[in-house]
From TrEMBL:
The protein's name: DUF306 domain-containing protein
Annotated transmembrane regions: 5-25
Keyword annotations: Membrane, Transmembrane, Transmembrane helix
Matching InterPro entries: DUF306_Meta_HslJ, HslJ-like_sf
Pfam families: META
Domain DUF306: 215-287
Superkingdom in the source lineage: Bacteria
Amino acid sequence: MRKIIIRVSLILGIIFLGVLYLGVYKFNVANDDVSFNAGTPASLDNATYKINGQNVLLKNGLSVTEVAPGSGSKIITRYFGNEVKHDFDGDGREDSAFLVTQETGGSGIFYYIVARLNTVHGYIGSEGVFLGDRISPQTTEMGKGNIVVVNYAERAKGESFSVQPSVGKSRWLLLDTKTMQFGEVAQNFEGEADPAQMTLEMKTWDWINTTYGDGTQIRPHSLKKFTLLFKKDSTFSLGTDCNRGGGEYVMNGSKISFEKMITTMMYCDGSQESDFTKMLCEVSSYLSPHEENSFLT
């Protein structure tokens, strides 16, 4: 099944669940100030991080250590990705934050967020923040004021690990470059409506990226070109990098579908319009975990 995430301000959003669990479609409200992971993984430069209270030296993105000498059991820590680059300490050098996983011999795969500073004395790794066991990472982003925003899906309380993660969650973290520890930032929706009361038509949504379950990503070549606007009369309008269009949407509880979609017929070489409209056609429902203070009802 595919998902679409529509975000308001820094983090407020909606997860649309589509068919086949193939991935995530992510939209961001216009004028949001967010940067995204890109480029060569900085984590492949050797650095030491503190994971679960232990120092871990990642060499080329990997660390393998024995649980105890001669035990044969190993702790495997490896670079996962979702990397965002940013100058955390303001020294003019590019630093980074990214996810790592750790396996300790059981069935668990434990996810952590870490940061790495590029200093005049070499690379310095941070203490990791535990995110969860066998979660489904989505994106790591830079929000305002040096805040690192980690978006991922986890299981509902009481669900077994055989159930695919489907509950959206976001963590806001701020790195103290002196202690190399992250602090949790309270999520603040100042200036926004009550998340439990917001409706789709309150915002214009922009397509940011699509991430499939196999890790394949599609991003618009031009941000702010792909828009989606819901209207109270159950119609919607859309814009792409080539044409304008619209249609009708039907909502029934958590179900949503886009119908009678039409667009103008201009041809544009290299347009991603077909990718965008295909995503909308495959949406079947949406999930609104507002109890996490992160998503719209």
